[in-house]
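Figure S7 source data.
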Amino acid sequence: MSSKGKQDLSGVWEFAFLPEKTPLKDNLARLRFDLLVAVPGCFDLTPEYYLRRGTGIYRRQVEAGGEMELISEGLGLRGEFYWDGKQIATVDAPFSPRVIRFDAGKPGEHELLVAVNNEFDDTPSSLFRRDYDFYAHGGIYRKITLAPAAAVHADEIKIIPLEPEKGTVRIAVKFSGAVSGLTQAEIRFDGQGESAILPLKDGTGEQVFQVPSPHLWSPDDPFLHTAEIQAGGESSSIEFGLRKVECRNGKLYLNGAPLKLIGCNRHDAHPEFGYAVPLDIRLRDLNRLKKAGMNCIRGCHYPQSEELLSLCDRLGILVWEESLGWGNNEAALTDPEFQARQIRETRNMAVKSVNHPSVIIWGFLNEARTDLEAARPLVKSLAETLREFDPSRPVTYGTCRLAKDVCLDLVDVISFNTYPCWYGFDQSQFCNKDDIRKNLSELVDFSSKPEYREKPLLISEIGAEALPGIYGGQRWSEEYQADLLETVVRFVLGSDRCSGTILWQYCDTRTFLSNCSQSAAGGFNSKGLLDRYRNPKISWRRLSDLLTNKNTQKKED
Ligand code: ADA
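Tokens for the predicted alpha-D-galactopyranuronic acid complex:
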């Protein structure tokens, strides 16, 4: 709850490494901390342990004492936390935040040790499999903070806009800890006026409030309100936005106006930093997207960092956020442990992100086998879990099963990942624009069937590889990709049925060389509109011109 005494533990930590298949517990006493590394950071991008698999052990001394609260915002692939040699927590989900409350003992200097492991788990319940088309880094991806544990912990705070233009919001809170005598929380908006009362029973409460001087949040005017919530002597300050996203008559609406999403799938990754992306890189990426006339990102394919979502709130960039999954097969979809983890982590994502106005769509299970009836129970549970926690946002999943998909009735938005003129189509050397338009028209027709036509349609992935510096217009060249993407964007802009397209992908990203189901030149997925260091390819310039109306005179050929 409170920020008093909060320490951000980012910085230089000592580091030791255990090769794969070396058990940590048997070796704790003989670890050799012979390297200094940065946290956040991915140990498998240090020169010393480049692309190695095993356990990276991070260690530092911290000042602490008594009941403490440690917040780990995200690591991978799994982690164990030790305090003065005693295990205090385990994390089995990559990218997900964890709150660890523990007794730190006498005030003074203590040892914190975080062991993260990036070895593959090939069992059906695994959340990050070796065939995923993005790199399975080992490291502390996002920051770790430490603070004295508040007597009253805010486990969930939800601020859901009801009638944004009038400023009415529903606030729902769940507190734990010293809540027995707690009968109310005080709410104050934007540091002004009197506090309003939220009655509490057993630490929970829910009520509608009126925000004074309501100001809408929108991509063009991303205004943020704040709510200060006090309970039991502790307080939280939450930023939120007054905006409404709806699905009506087969379209997406934002604040009552039809919405056309044009943007990119963005991995929160960098070739030098892995998933520990510096603020400067994230901010440059988002500024670049906005300047190119794009209005959204899909945070593929895992929960996004608080830092990134706060930037999207401030810049007015819309976000589809999704929990971790990629091509999961029937064995996984029907595995009880996998199902439990997916439901738990999908709800954790929504709890983490619910107050970010930039997040307008919840997603999950990218390209799972939703062409199988066996997928329906988990898809249904995930959709229900999200709607139960947050009825204010549509839910969806990116499917490559297209017309064979049997779960589309369970979600609010139809989202097709399709690769005309790249996968499984006429392998002609040059971009066949008619083929692209034909494929997209077929998807529009399919989604116009009575059972689907009330649901908005998104082309949630589409693209082609383009190796930087390869020119000539043939497959793998920059012009081929630009011709394909320009055709797609023009089609979507001209389509009344289609609520947008999220191109694959923002920039080239590290994946696997051999055992990935996608062929990847040099270990990188090169479908980026920018190269791995964010240098623009022809398609970036071509689409920026198109989207910022620099070449309106150029007609479609
Ligand atoms: C799929 C998948 C992406 C990426 C893409 C590709 O649509 O969802 O993560 O792998 O294919 O590049 O082939």
